[in-house]
Design brief:
Blueprint lengths: L13 E5 L3 H12 L3 E5 L5 H7 L5 E3 L13 E4 L4 H14 L3 E3 L12 E5 L2 E5 L6 H14 L4 H18 L3 H13 L1 H7 L3 H12 L9 E6 L10 H7 L4 E4 L5 H4 L7 E4 L11 H13 L3 E6 L9 H10 L4 E4 L4 H9 L11 E6 L19 E6 L5 H10 L7 E6 L7 E6 L3 H7 L6 E5 L5 H4 L11
Parallel strand pairs: 1-2, 1-4, 2-3, 4-5, 8-11, 8-12, 9-10, 9-11, 13-14
Antiparallel strand pairs: 6-7, 14-17, 15-16, 15-17
This protein binds S-adenosyl-L-homocysteine.
S-adenosyl-L-homocysteine (SAH) binds next to helix 13 and strand 17.
Length: 464
């Protein structure tokens, strides 16, 4: 270890910044954020730095650096483009035992700036010891995605209760278990979901020992249309902390793989007209598992509130008083359209888009066909493959031109995506011709022709 990470308290201490350019500005801002008083020295200073250096007790010295500038200083940043001057500042600072950082010159530094993830009071610092700052920044970016923006609020909440909990639980081990439970359970989730008051209420209850039994929680999470890259950060986080996962046929194996390794996995998928687990049994199962105190992840393809029966599942949870949260996902229409090069709306071709279920009961059609005739409207049919001949026929019968462009997107966004384009007249034939199977999304409307205009290209996919 070449550098020992320490966190430097700079509140109301004097920090010297030598230099007046962009780098100096960046460092000065950081120092100001940490509460330091600035002394900025440079013959010329850019306007924004001049403004910062003019605030409060900060000092701005518009001249060259002098050794006397080091007086009373707790930290020194040399950010000039004059290398001999930087070396001189470093030598003088080190002779006086004052920590010094010379930007982009690790050899001249006694302290270096890490890449920072700021969720104050929680701060994560990453350093490569000056050897590979870009790598440190990339790692920082990864950490940024793991730590919800509201982590700071969670830490703030914990701070308010810290002394009280310490008084109640003198044993370190007990306290560790207490706080782990707070940071990984329902209290943390409430804060992450923007419900700080709820988190505070639960924590107050917990501190008072008023939670009679551990009640689990259900996360109703949209897993997107297939490509794991389309998961949200929140989805991924909940996937990695749930104790048990209930998933559908639509959720791609690559996504299940991202769930916590030791989580129990339960398949509750449905085949069309072969319901393997009836919906009410799924609802009941969610309730039972949560009542056992488990964190239950209900993973759904696409978005849980778009043809996902998410509404029914949370109704049951709400009725039983089980805490739950819903995490939106990218719905098949957005995902498939983007990956197939078909904008769902376009100023010239479609002013609205309609998501329609094509799952027709008994082959009959109870859809409001007359509403679908406007040519400026894009129609997206979910579950429309079996009923496709009826859908096309009814649209034409109700006045949509037989020549209206239409597309079939099978397994959209995955590496197996296949796209076929045609018209309302020949779409059903394409299904037979290319053995198109579920899950397939049907898009109808003038926007489909934009795919060709955009000269969209997918590597392995079969074109018509
Ligand atoms: N809640 C889901 C939809 C569930 S309904 C969502 O928001 O996307 C199931 C239908 O969605 C399928 O019959 C198919 O029409 C469509 N679908 C889901 N994922 C798909 C995919 N990757 N490619 C094509 N269609 C898909």
């Amino acid at each position: 270890m070449d550098f020992l990470p320490l966190f430097h308290k700079l509140h109301d201490r004097l920090a010297l910044v030598v230099g007046g350019g962009e780098v100096a500005l960046r460092k000065a801002r950081l120092l100001a954020d940490a509460g330091a008083t600035l002394r900025v020295v440079a013959p010329e200073v850019r306007d924004d730095l001049r403004e910062l250096a003019g605030q409060g007790a900060n000092q701005l010295l518009l001249r060259g650096y002098q050794a006397s500038d080091l007086e009373g200083v707790a930290l020194i940043i040399a950010a000039t483009d004059d290398e001999p001057l930087n070396a001189q500042i470093s030598a003088q600072a080190q002779a006086l035992g004052i920590p010094v950082n010379v930007v982009d010159a690790p050899k001249l530094c006694s302290v270096i700036f890490p890449a920072i993830v700021d969720r104050s009071p929680l701060i994560v610092a990453v350093s490569s010891g000056g050897d590979a700052p870009v790598l440190a920044r990339l790692i920082r970016a990864k950490i940024e995605t793991w730590i919800p923006a509201t982590y700071g609020q969670l830490a703030g909440l914990a701070k308010r209760f810290r002394a009280q909990v310490k008084g109640l639980l003198p044993d370190v081990q007990q306290r560790r278990v207490f706080w782990e439970d707070v940071f990984q359970g329902q209290i943390a989730e409430s804060v992450f979901a923007g419900k700080l008051h709820e988190g505070e209420r639960l924590l107050t209850q917990k501190v008072a020992g008023a939670i009679p039994q551990a009640l689990g929680e259900v996360y109703l999470v949209g897993a997107g249309p297939g490509d794991p890259d389309l998961l949200t950060f929140r989805a991924l986080r909940l996937m990695q902390q749930a104790d048990v996962v209930l998933y559908d046929r639509l959720v791609a194996p690559a996504i299940i793989e991202l769930c916590r390794r030791d989580a129990e996995r339960i398949y509750v998928g449905k085949q069309r007209s072969a319901h393997s687990v009836p919906q009410d049994q799924i609802n009941q199962r969610l309730v039972t598992l949560a009542k056992e105190g488990k964190r239950v992840l209900r993973l759904k393809g696409g978005d849980p509130f778009i043809f996902g029966r998410g509404g029914e599942e949370i109704e049951e949870l709400a009725a039983q008083g089980i805490p739950f949260q819903v995490v939106p996902g990218i719905t098949a229409a957005s995902g498939c359209a983007a990956y197939a090069g078909i904008p769902l709306t376009h100023r010239d071709y479609a002013q609205s888009v309609r998501f329609v279920t094509g799952h027709l009961k008994d082959g009959s059609c109870d859809l409001p066909w007359a509403e679908f005739t406007a040519s400026s409207q894009t129609l997206v049919f979910y579950m429309g493959l079996v009923g496709l001949p009826v859908i096309c026929q009814q649209l034409i019968a109700h006045g949509r031109a037989a020549s209206t462009p239409a597309a079939l997107i099978q397994q959209g966004t995955t590496s197996n995506q296949r796209v076929f384009t045609g018209t309302l007249a020949n779409l059903p034939e394409l299904v037979a011709q290319h053995n198109v199977h579920a899950p397939t999304l049907v898009i109808v409307g003038e926007v489909v022709q934009l795919r060709d205009k955009l000269a969209w290209f997918e590597g392995a996919q079969t074109e018509v």
